[in-house]
Design brief:
It contains four helices and twelve strands. It has 223 residues and is of the alpha+beta class. Among the domains are: 78 residues, Immunoglobulin-like (Sandwich), CATH 2.60.40; 75 residues, Nuclear Transport Factor 2, Chain: A (Roll). The strands form three sheets. Strands 4, 5, 7, 8 and 9 form a five-stranded antiparallel beta sheet that branches. Strands 1, 2, 3 and 6 form a four-stranded antiparallel beta sheet that branches.
Length: 223
């Protein structure tokens, strides 16, 4: 009888210990972060051109910033151009290479710096022009009329030259070769245009100047 009571007591004690251990473990289990804080990401609108000032405006924002103080930065490479607390920038100078933007998002317990985002589109819009034909473009290049030609070219015109001993990718180098008589002339093979008839791509064929060799010899009369 006593043996049965002892076994019952031990079994009860073991069961209570097991239940206590389970409850104790669940109490120390870490709970998920209840702040719901996400990683801030930048949202950037397209630059807007202002005709009267010949400058651009830009609006950016960051998501997942509730309860934080946000400062936005406009950068030229790594150099600070301007900063804003509302993400609005105005009076931005044209720049073909574009600008970088970034934000600092600060809460009481942490600060996050967002990755840099590179923004293009700071190029002054061009008015439509009359489309040049292959022959007209060819004449302008061979006559080295750079002033007229620039009125019909985009800023990043792509140049391809065939039948050239060296790779030429700039029209300036084409003019130099014509001026220095390295090339006799060029033939325009293909042109690509944008929606304003500005030339975005040119394919040329170069005519190299023949090398002049001195084959003169002295001849003597035979007697």
């Amino acid at each position: 009888m006593n043996t049965l009571k002892i076994r019952t007591t031990l079994l009860t004690f073991a069961l209570l210990s097991f239940l206590y251990g389970c409850n104790n473990n669940s109490a120390t289990t870490p709970t998920p972060d209840s702040t719901g804080r996400g990683e801030p990401l930048l949202i950037v609108d397209a630059p807007s051109y202002e005709e009267y000032s010949k400058t651009f405006s830009l609006a950016i924002m960051a998501d997942s910033t509730e309860g934080a103080t946000v400062t936005y930065f406009l950068l030229d490479g790594d150099s600070l151009i301007a900063q804003s607390t509302d993400g609005s920038f105005k009076g931005i100078s044209p720049m073909e290479e574009g600008y970088n933007v970034q934000a600092r998002v600060a809460w009481e317990d942490t600060t996050i710096i967002t990755p840099i985002v590179h923004v293009l589109g700071f190029v002054i819009p061009r008015e439509p022009v009359e489309k040049l034909s292959n022959k007209e473009l060819q004449q302008l290049i061979n006559s080295k009329d750079e002033e007229t030609l620039n009125l019909h070219l985009t800023q990043n015109v792509k140049l391809t030259v065939s039948d050239s001993q060296v790779k030429v990718t700039l029209l300036h180098d084409v003019f130099l070769r014509l001026e220095n008589n390295v090339w006799d002339s060029v033939t325009v093979q293909d042109i690509a245009y944008d929606e304003n008839n500005l030339i975005t791509s040119i394919t040329l064929k170069a005519k190299e100047r023949e090398q002049q060799t001195d084959n003169s010899e002295e001849f003597y009369d035979e007697y």
